Every structure is written in structure tokens, then in C-alpha cells.
Amino acid sequence: MQNDFAIDRRRFAALFAGALAAPLIAGAAHAQTATPQPIDEGRFVSINGVEQWIVIRGADIRNPILFVLQGGPGIGAAFMAPIFFDWENEFTIVLWDQPGGGGTDIRNAGNPGEQSLDRYTRDAIAVAEYARERLGQQKMVVFGNSWGTQLGLELIHHRPDLTSAYVGVAQAIGMRGWVEGYRLALEAAHARADAAGIAALEAAGPPPYARFEDFMTRQSYVFPPNLPATDAENAAGAAFAAAAFAPPPPGASWVAPVTPPAGYDYGAVFMRSAQAMFPVWQDMEIRDYGRDFSMPVFVFQGAVDINTPASLAREWIEEINAPAKAFAAIPGAGHNVMAFHQEIHALFRQHVLPALGR
To answer: Mean of the pLDDT values across residues 283-298?
Structure first.
């Protein structure tokens, strides 16, 4: 929300001649800038010629921007606004429904357009630029989740000037992660004597995969329900669903003003994007981004994540050079680590805010 109140300094000074004028003007200016400037808006924005749904919420636009890059693609981000309510006093939250998911997909009649790393990177950069201009704020934390970590690394690699810090959760590593995840999934299937799972995984074999069906076989055994969830995952997942999917209040800013057509299938929408993007995911190699980063880098990983194994994410953090860096494993969390948003928020307060000078 832009503050429309402004002081005409010349008229004000003309009314108060002499020595009192300067301190009065300075005091008035200070009072103006000290007033919180909240924002709560959702709107479609033309991003590289495509209408895309962007939600911006925060208690004061002078706070650092938290640009959330959701996993998927094929899954919107705006629906997660309620889980960030507690963050809004410290950050201005930017939630973007990437092409192929959420309100953006519905607005564009289920036509995501080009689905490539280059296209998503260009769009992410354009959204980051839009958010900084809209808010008049330079400090931005790029916060990637799963696929969003690959996209986030692309963003900070191509435009480090836009970024004050990078945070990855469910951090993608590259082919070593895909292979290690397959090994762990097969090991877990053996441990629980899951004959059907063992047979399916062995038939698909380890990555890389040329066939989407084999890729999805691996994926189906690195997540619940085929991979039993921990008690902590079950509890966090239930709380996440209760917060994120509760009926929103009338006029909620994060709900896109579009109606899905009859028969719109969110699961099928995700699968469409997954099929288009799985070769891109497999081609990622985290070491291609180098070891030297100009901004603080943090990774908060699920301790029992076998899709993007925590051990490899920790190894990467230990290898890189950055002004500040940290790794934390969240006990009981798997790849769906965003369900543990309260624990992630605590880690932001411990590591990220101090790195921003907050």
C-alpha cells in the first residue's frame, strides 16, 4: 500500500521562519517514515506477455521481500498465504502462481505455454523486478522449495543483484540426488518387505530416466503413502492442510478471481507440468552454479527427505563460499518440508534475519 500522504516542505518551511523550521520539518518527515505501510493485494500481472497471479502481503513494505518459489511447477503458491501470516511482521511475502499452476493456469485456460528452465527463469526474474518496483524495496530473499530451489539458483545465478539472500528447502542437488534417492527408496522397500514396491523400483531401475513412467515410479516411493510417513510428518501435514485449505474469508486477497472450468483436475494439471519438466529436473547439477556466492546461502532440509537427500544438501553447503551460510535438518520432516513452516520460520529468525541486519 502506497502512502499517499506527503509533506510539501517548501510551503511548510515558509510558515515557520527562523531556527524552529528545520527541526520541525525533520520531525514531521521522521513521523511519516515511521508509520507502518501494510500491503494486502492479489492481482494478475502481465509477466513477459502472460497474465500471472501474484499475491503480496505484509505489515510494512519497508521489510525485506520474501519471494517464494513454489515446487512443482503445476502447483500454485498463493494458496499457502495463510501459513505465512506469522511471517508478515518481518517480511513482505510475494507468492507467485507459476505458469502451469494455480490461478495463472486457470486464467490462461490451461495453456501454460513454453515449459522450460529458460522460460521459468525469465519469468521469475520479471516477477522479482516487479515486486521490488512495486514495493520500493531492494532487500529480497529468494526462498525456493523443491523445484523452486532449481529455479531460485537460476535466478540468483543470472541476477545476483536482485538477491540479498537465498534459502532452499527440499533443496535439489542433481543426478547424485536422484540416484541416492532411488537407492534409499529401494532400501526402505526392502526394510518393510514391500514386494510390490521392490519389483516396481527394480523394473524402473535407477535414474536417469527416458520414460516419464519410470520417473514417476521412483517418485511414488520417495513420498507417502508408499513411503510410510513419520508421526511428525503426519501431524505437520494435517496442520498445514487445516491452515492452507480452510475456507478463506470473503474477498481474501490470495484467492484468484477466476473459476476453474467444469472438470478441472488439479492433479492432472500437476502431472502435465511434471511430464514436461522431468527432463529439466534430471539435467540439473548444483555444482554448475559454482562455489562462490555473493549473498548469504541457507538450506533447511527435511531430516528424512529421501527425494532430495539431506546428506547431499549438507555436503553442498559445506563446499560453498558465501558471506554467511548455514544448514539445518528438521527432525521428522521429509520432502514435504513446507508442512513444517513453523520450524522453518524459527530458522529464518535464527539465521536469515541476522544476515539481513534485522
So the answer is: 97
List 47's β-bridge partners, or say none.
50
Contact in structure between 96 and 53 (CB atoms under 8 Å) = yes
Judged by average pLDDT, the poorest of 8-17, 24-33, 114-123, 251-260 is 8-17
Mean pLDDT of the chain: 91
Q: CA neighbours within 13 Å on the CB side: how many for 216?
A: 11
Retrieve residue 158's grid coordinates.
543470472
CA pair distance 179, 307, nearest whole angstrom: 9
Residues in CB range of 246: below 8 A, 6 or more apart: 82
Note the residue count of the chain. 358
User: How far is 77 from 81, CA to CA, in rounded Å?
Assistant: 8
Instruction: For residue 21, give the 3-state DSSP assignment.
Output: helix
168 and 149 in contact (C-beta within 8 Å)? yes
- Cell 478463506 sits on residue: 248
Q: Cell 515446487, residue?
A: 71
3-class secondary-structure state, position 278: helix
Burial of 249 (0-12, 13-18, 19+ CB in 10 A): exposed
Buried b (16+ CB within 10 A) or exposed e, 253-262: bbbbebeeee
Of 238, 227, 249, 260, the C-alpha closest to 109 is 260
Determine the pLDDT at residue 33: 59
Beta strand segments in the chain, E = 39-47, 50-58, 65-69, 92-96, 140-145, 165-169, 297-302, 325-330
Query: What is the β-pairing status of strands 140-145 and 165-169?
Result: parallel
Q: Say yes or no to pLDDT of 226 above 80.
A: yes
- pLDDT tens digit string along 249-275? 999 999 999 999 999 999 999 999 999
Cα(202)–Cα(21) distance, rounded to whole angstroms?
81
Task: Tell me whether strands 297-302 and 165-169 are parallel, antiparallel or unpaired.
Answer: parallel
65 neighbors 94 (Cβ within 8 angstroms): yes
Backbone torsion region of residue 107, taken as left when φ is above 0, otherwise alpha when ψ lies between -120 and 50, otherwise beta:
alpha
The predicted pLDDT at position 34 comes to: 77
